Amino acid sequence: MVDVLPYGSWPSPLSASWASAAAPRFEGAAFVGDEIWWGESVPTEGGRTAVRRLVEDGIDTVLPAPWNARSRVHEYGGGSWAADGDGRLFFVEKTDQRVWLRAPGAAPRPLTPADPNTAFGGLRWQHGVLLAVRERQVPAHAARRDLVRIDVDGDGSDASVTPLVGGSDFVAQPALSPSGARLAWVAWNHPDMPWDRTELRIGELVDGRVASWRTVSSGQTAALQPEWVGDDLLYVDDPTGRWNLWRAGADTPAVLVRPADADTGGPLWVLGPRWYAPLPGGRVAAVRTNGCDELVVMDAGGTATRLDVPPTARMLVEDADGDRLLISGAARGANGVWLVEVDSGAVRQVAGGTGTTADTTTDWFPVGRPVTFTGIHGEVHAFDFPPTNPEVAGPGDELPPYVVFVHGGPTAHVGGVADAKTAFFTSRGIGVLDVNYGGSTGYGRAYRERLRGQWGVVDVDDVATAASGLAAEGRADAGRLAIEGGSAGGWTVLAALATTDVFAAGISRYGVADARALAADTHDFESRYLDGLIGPLPEAEPAYLDRSPLSRIDGFTVPVLLLQGSDDAVVPPAQSEAIRDALRAAGVPHAYVLYEGEGHGFRRAETIVHALESELAFLGRVFGFETPGIPPIALG
User: Fold this and answer.
1) Distance between CA atoms of 600 and 44, rounded to whole angstroms?
2) Report field, pTM of the whole predicted structure over 0.90
């Protein structure tokens, strides 16, 4: 029998502790000899990244505590580990950013020298060579980066690291040809971001270093992920407006493998992602994104066949071995790593968060409904996750409260899959509307460039359009709409509260409040990002001032919850504290929580639990529903 209870107060077995355990971050997966390995965050161990493997009787941890495989290159890291066929693990240790080797049965030993101003990331083991991106902080200069080869038999001295090539502000995704004679990589310079313009370069290796290079792509597109297939080079590029697969020969111009109105590729926030992998017989397995993700296999003639796999969001092709694939991503009720047998179509999940499909059925997870609303800037894409609880329903004369999720980036994307946080809310009778506002990836270059020069305008208009549109459909209570987001999403939250009357509450996680301060204080990778989002300084300073939420405190009239990590180098605590102080001076109800030791994105179990419970308590207080078992929150 189904109970009828007010929305927001529904009892749910999906606790904040469950959500913390159910949604670890996965970083890379690989076939290592006859084994399957992957990287996985462990919230209960301080959020460290462990490397694990599948064994006959379960799961074995290859990299135990206290080791933490996490790169700080570009602050966001990525590619923090690699392995060879003999089971040797190469990893970047978070605490010192050196590359270490752990051979089977041996203690880890360093492969690179100790240097507090140097970090490594983007590790890749190819043809017996360990490649990496090296980032060095140089006094009085921006960070400098190059591609290097690391001697895995060396003594960890300076001589163990051989520079291969630099020549640009940023380098990523090195690929060594099978003969070892050529190196391909992606390069770009300030003020571009890697989704704006990159160059795909091929260099000739002489005496172990790149002696000369040529550029394969136009330099006006965002080429990504080079992979060698014999003497040919595969890569993704978007001159057609979509990231599609291209092939370039040694002496022949690049050709489009097969056009598709979908993206094989995404924003290169971290150094490790791969969206496709070559297979035997000239085939290629690739992710395609058009709102949601799908996995296809293209034959040598370019014909694409869709494979039926569980994940439909955040999907990556991590590795290939013969006709076997390892993919990662998110599926309804589960996220993790899957083994795919391409020829037979067999699929098996090999890694995932605890307490997802094992302890809780997918009946508790909402099914995402793709929705599109028409706004003043064009179509706005989103996914509607209605309140979902198999044991409870809401009153017939009441519409549910909703939280509008605003993703970070802002150049990023959400798929139509409910994660643990979404289910935490929807199982309690709170709907979630996840918005891919203009500027998001997954819908082509034109859609993501809608935000160019318009950050703080298009994103705000689009989330307001989506929220109002859902209420107009009679699916959400227009008087109980909240908005929440982190980082760039936090900027949109604060800007929407300051400039619209659509939302009755807002939650900002490490959000941007002052665009000028962000441009001055943020790290090198994003130090010129705002040139494209708002405009170059000092010419665009009036726009920076006008759009910053800190300049519009008079527009704040509803309660605000601010959540912040003390060690955030991307959006420093000063941003949240400035808006906190301004809200206090203006008499706007608010709460501020600072999490010691957390950076840009919360990783520790206790932080994730406290933040989720604080958000629920905040919504209950503002919208007037009970939150059983959740400590109340005080507003100043």
Assistant:
1) 18
2) yes
